[in-house]
């Protein structure tokens, strides 16, 4: 009962259990953080707005994105992944979410920022429903911890719309 | 002791998360720096609709290894509620259309095995080492077998 092998086994199991417990507690501590992020997006220009050969509408736009996401960071945060998605409804689809731009914030110092950019990913519809379309821009964030549970949430900004005509 | 408790935890996780494989090991660098090779992800599949930003695990027809990437586009039908989903690895320059089956442009619900809800770093290296260098697996099993045979209980 007291052989070396048995003791090593017991020690290892105990060590692994304690490590797992510490990871769980680290993750739990994230729940005490109450974040208060803020963001603002302006569309500065619609670069072009066309109907593709396959019949799908596509638009290219330039935005100013400014945000303060510093309150999302805790000691257990490895990075925060953020992306901006356009959300709208069409007769065929009750919900369309198209990611336009994303970024990785590796540290709290970088979480307060302002960026002027065109859409990183193509804004393409399933169909040609985008003329005059009203849409929301949502800034989503995904807090990826050093260990444990991941948190995600978003800010919805309404009131954006596309031109009535192709250009 | 470790083996039996690992087995109990595994089975319990299967019950809690309602998924056939509640834990996956990250095998590629396509989601760095968030997920590195050797991390393990806890999966959960709920009936909630798939939304952009979620990290999902999916199988492509004809490929064995499941892929863990983020959803970047969602188109949900008015009438049926079915979704077309496009995914992309955070660290990849382009989206996953190249990975999907020939002629497939979207993923549907049936391709998706679960959402990643939590993660533990480094723990998955044991699985990777045992898969890529099977000799280690044999040594480990041999050593365990030896321990069982030689213990005086």
From TrEMBL, chain A:
UniProt keyword terms in alphabetical order: Endoplasmic reticulum, Membrane, Signal, Signal-anchor, Transmembrane, Transmembrane helix
Endoplasmic reticulum in keyword set: yes
The organism's place on the tree of life at top rank: Eukaryota
Topology within the bilayer: Single-pass type II membrane protein
Entries under InterPro entries matching the protein: SPC3
Signal peptide stretch: 1-26
GO biological process: protein targeting to ER; signal peptide processing
Localization terms from the record: Endoplasmic reticulum membrane
Gene Ontology CC terms, in alphabetical order: signal peptidase complex
Keyword Aminoacyl-tRNA synthetase appears in the UniProt entry: no
Pfam families in the cross-refs: SPC22
Family: Belongs to the SPCS3 family.
Known role: Essential component of the signal peptidase complex (SPC) which catalyzes the cleavage of N-terminal signal sequences from nascent proteins as they are translocated into the lumen of the endoplasmic reticulum. Essential for the SPC catalytic activity, possibly by stabilizing and positioning the active center of the complex close to the lumenal surface.
Protein name: Signal peptidase complex subunit 3
Gene name linked to the record: LOC111302190
UniProtKB/TrEMBL annotation, chain B:
InterPro entries from the UniProt entry: LexA/Signal_pep-like_sf, Peptidase_S24_S26A/B/C, Peptidase_S26, Peptidase_S26B
UniProt catalytic activity: Cleavage of hydrophobic, N-terminal signal or leader sequences from secreted and periplasmic proteins
Single GO MF annotation: signal peptidase activity
Peptidase S24/S26A/S26B/S26C domain: residues covered: 10-75
Keywords, comma-separated and alphabetical: Hydrolase, Membrane, Protease, Signal, Signal-anchor, Transmembrane, Transmembrane helix
Chief site of localization: membrane
E.C. code: 3.4.21.89
Pfam short name (any one): Peptidase_S24
Superkingdom to which the source organism belongs: Eukaryota
UniProt signal peptide: 1-21
Membrane topology: Single-pass type II membrane protein
GO biological process, any: signal peptide processing
A cellular component term, taken from the record's GO annotations: signal peptidase complex
Intracellular or extracellular location(s): Endomembrane system; Membrane
UniProt similarity note: Belongs to the peptidase S26B family.
Protein name per UniProt: signal peptidase I
Gene name tied to this protein: LOC111278830
């Amino acid at each position: 009962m007291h052989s070396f092998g048995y003791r090593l086994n017991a020690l290892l199991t105990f060590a692994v259990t304690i490590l797992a417990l510490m990871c769980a507690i680290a993750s739990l501590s994230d729940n005490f953080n109450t974040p208060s992020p803020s963001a603002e997006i302006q569309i500065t220009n619609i670069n072009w707005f066309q109907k593709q050969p396959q019949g799908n509408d596509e638009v290219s736009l330039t935005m100013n994105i400014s945000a303060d996401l510093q309150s999302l960071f805790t000691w257990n945060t490895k990075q925060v992944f953020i992306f901006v998605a356009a959300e709208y409804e069409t007769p065929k689809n009750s919900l369309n979410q198209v990611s336009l731009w994303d970024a990785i914030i590796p540290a709290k110092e970088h979480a307060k920022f302002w960026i002027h950019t065109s859409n990183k990913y193509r804004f393409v519809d399933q169909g040609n429903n985008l003329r005059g379309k009203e849409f929301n821009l949502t800034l989503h964030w995904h807090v990826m911890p050093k260990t444990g549970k991941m948190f995600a949430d978003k800010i919805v900004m309404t009131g954006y719309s596309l031109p009535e005509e192709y250009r | 002791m470790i083996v039996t408790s690992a087995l109990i935890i595994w089975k319990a996780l299967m019950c809690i998360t309602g998924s056939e494989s509640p834990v996956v090991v990250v095998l590629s660098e396509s989601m760095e720096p968030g997920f590195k090779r050797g991390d393990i992800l806890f999966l959960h599949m709920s009936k909630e609709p798939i939304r952009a930003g979620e990290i999902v695990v999916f199988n492509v027809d004809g490929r064995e290894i499941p892929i863990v990437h983020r959803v970047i586009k969602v188109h949900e039908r008015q009438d049926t509620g079915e979704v077309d989903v496009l995914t992309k690895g955070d660290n990849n320059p382009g989206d996953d259309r190249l990975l999907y089956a020939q002629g497939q442009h979207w993923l549907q619900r049936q391709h998706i095995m679960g959402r990643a809800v939590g993660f533990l770093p480094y723990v998955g290296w044991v699985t990777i080492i045992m898969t890529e260098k099977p000799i280690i697996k044999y040594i480990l099993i041999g050593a365990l077998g030896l321990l069982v045979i030689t213990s005086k209980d």
